[in-house]
Amino acid sequence: MKGIDVSKYQGAINWASVRADGIGFAMIRAGYGMYPQQKDPYFDQNVLGAQSQGIHTGAYLYSYAKSVEDAQREADVFLDWIQPYRLDYPVAFDIEDASQENLSRELLSDIVTAFCTKLEAQGYYVMLYANKYWLQNKLIYDRISRFDIWLAQYAETATYDQPYGMWQYTSSGKVNGIRGGVDLNTSYKDYVQLIEGHAAEPVGSALGIVTADLLNVRAAPSTDAIRLRQVARTNEVDVLAIVSNGWLKVNVAGLIGYVFAKYIQYDPNGLPVISAPSNEQVEGICTANLLNVRAGAGTQYRVLFQVAEGNSVNVMEERSGWYYINCRHGKGWCSAQYIDLQL
Fold first, then answer.
1. Which of 143, 187, 262, 319 has fewest C-beta within 10 Å?
2. Cβ-based neighbour number of residue 181 at 10 Å
3. Which of 274, 298, 327 is the last residue of a domain?
4. Residues whose CB falls within 8 Å of the CB of residue 307, separated by 6 or more in sequence, listed in order
């Protein structure tokens, strides 16, 4: 399967275009180091964006650890960052920094083991990212071999002589929806299937009961965000996190979204608290023969352009039965009944 790995250096990504370009999985940087403020500022929106398009998602941490204690602290902060999400691809420990280069093979192998075993204890499928030189010269293979290897080697053919589950083969790939170069990868295992049988329930989740007659589940924690679906009173949801602005991040039958907290009965103890991400775009397909896109949310506004049946648009906002969309013709408002959301 073809995939990418991304971080803040790719900026804002159009995940619908990435998916349309044949990308099946994304390894997303959660952050680096061992302090909460070192979280990647694009991590949350990248995970939500990729998952909204059906792209399999994993996460990785770039390490600066110089001791076992540092690695354990990195594992703790990494767990805080990834706990709200259901990841169906591995989580990875990226060890390659120049500041670690003079550490002994024994200590580097201890650092890898300390981080990876702590993540395994929480039910995650863990892999080690390193380049060929580090794998052969900086680490003790017998100590790390039980973890899947994500090999970095920029070449037409990988020449690493030990098993590996993923190969990063270039840092200058081109993918629609991403400005500039991006790392390209090939996955050789069915990680989705492996993780289904491996992963435990996400740490910090809780059962929630809907108390509203009909509760809107939205793509972001805002009443302006796209409505993904509705859930009736007494139905159950899986509460993944408390959002700082009075909303909850939830899983509803496999669909990740946000609901207003006052309409969910749940136990908040142990749930992570996350900041509110920006509104997420959701891909939609035009179902009208020729759909008018207007300057405002209503038929009284002038028509800006038209979208033909079958064309893809990015839905950015919902208001009173109208969607604010972005497509190759521009931005504007259209009737929501003629857009089929691709959830």
1. 262
2. 14
3. 274
4. 286, 288, 290, 291, 293, 313, 325, 327, 329, 334
Among the listed residues 166, 159, 169, the one whose alpha carbon sits nearest the alpha carbon of residue 187: 166
**How far, in Å, CA of 343 to CA of 101, rounded?**
44
Q: Are residues 131 and 240 in the same domain?
A: no
The CA radius of gyration of the chain, in Å to the nearest whole number, is 22
User: Does 132 fall in a domain?
Assistant: yes
- Going from the C-alpha of 135 to that of each of 108, 111, 164, 273, the distances in angstroms are 11, 14, 11, 37
CA nearest neighbour of 261 among 279, 282, 237, 227: 237
Range of the domain at 221: 206-274
Helix H, strand E, coil C: the string for the chain is CEEEEECHHHCCCCHHHHHHCCCCEEEEEEEECCCHHHECCCHHHHHHHHHHCCCEEEEEEECCCCCHHHHHHHHHHHHHHHCCCCCCCCEEEECCCHHHCCCCHHHHHHHHHHHHHHHHHCCCCEEEEEEHHHHHHCCCHHHHCCCEEEEECCCCCCCCCCCCCEEEEEEEECCCCCCCCEEEEEECCCHHHHHHCCCCCCCCCEEEEECCCEEEEECCCCCCCCEEEEEECCCEEEEEEEECCCEEEEEECCEEEEEEHHHEECCCCCCCEECCCCCCCEEEEECCCEEEEECCCCCCCCEEEEEECCCEEEEEEEECCEEEEEECCEEEEEEHHHEEECC
pTM recorded for the entire structure = 0.60
Note the pLDDT tens digit of each residue in 109-120: 999 999 999 888
* Per-residue pLDDT reduced to its tens digit, 155-169: 999 999 999 999 999
Q: What mean pLDDT is reported for the chain?
A: 90
User: Which residue type, as a one-letter code, is found at position 321?
Assistant: G
